[in-house]
Write a structure and sequence with these properties.
alpha/beta; 11 helices; 338 residues
Length: 338
Amino acid sequence: MKILVTGCAGFIGMHATQRLLARGDEVVGIDNLNDYYDVKLKEARLAQLTGQPGFRFVRMDMADRAAMEALFAAEKFKRVINLAAQPGVRYSLKNPHAYIETNIVGFLNVLEGCRHHQVEHLVYASSSSVYGANTHMPFSVHDNVDHPVSLYAATKKSSELMAHSYSHLYGLPTTGLRFFTVYGPWGRPDMSPSLFASAIEEGRAIDVFNHGKMQRDFTYIDDIVEGLIRVMDQVAAPNPDFDRAQPDAASSYAPFRVYNIGNHEPVELMDFIGAIETALGKQAIKNMLPMQMGDVVATYADTEDLRQAVGFSPSTPLVDGVGKFVEWFRQYHGSSPS
């Protein structure tokens, strides 16, 4: 199949593209290579893809309406995986406009391209952040998610609503995937695994928010990609049992679905730090801090719907995933055990 992957130079985008190419798909990848974090890392990821049979890269901002219209018209994609986004909860407090431009305007351009050019299935990245102020655990795709606690979360919830409207109006099959704290080789430098590993290696203190009393459903990148590809291959369909009097948030009378992809085993933040310390062979200096605005205390994914739909649930043990991450981290940054 010819597949569009937006955000192909991103963490998940690079890994997903590699998996698609390995099985023989043709992939057109787009990315604007913005400087939200180190562009050199994005370029290094892109170098892992460049030259592989079936891959073409187009530097493009998906908020560029004319460029996106021309791309869809020229390429005639069969499937689309939208992974491009402005990420980060805390950054959304500083630069809210970036989230609207990419996560709302950019996603609209993707939806319009799919609508006008007969794309069979659009799969897009949502986030566990949409659960916001919910305290019911584990987080279920059937729960109400109308109380976001950050603009980032609000834009991800908006993406789901926008997708449903296109599924309803134009019969476009769409599936949203709520990712839970993804980590692994080639991960983003602004996320906790890289921040912690870098500080520990250099002997700097790490910031531990809410005094360490937090839980995250850390999910290894290979599990994320496995679920993503399986979902892409199963085109979203209407739920024949959908009851409009008691609507299900995870499905619809239209070809619309939402799934969690998480390891469904939340880990205490201090235990995660401990796993990184063990893999590095060094102890962390901890700077205990209060809770940050827009953050949540815990995330915990109910993945039963994903398992029933595609026969898969993430399960990589934390010690294995952290070990692979640290091995890559040291190789990429040229550091070694001391």
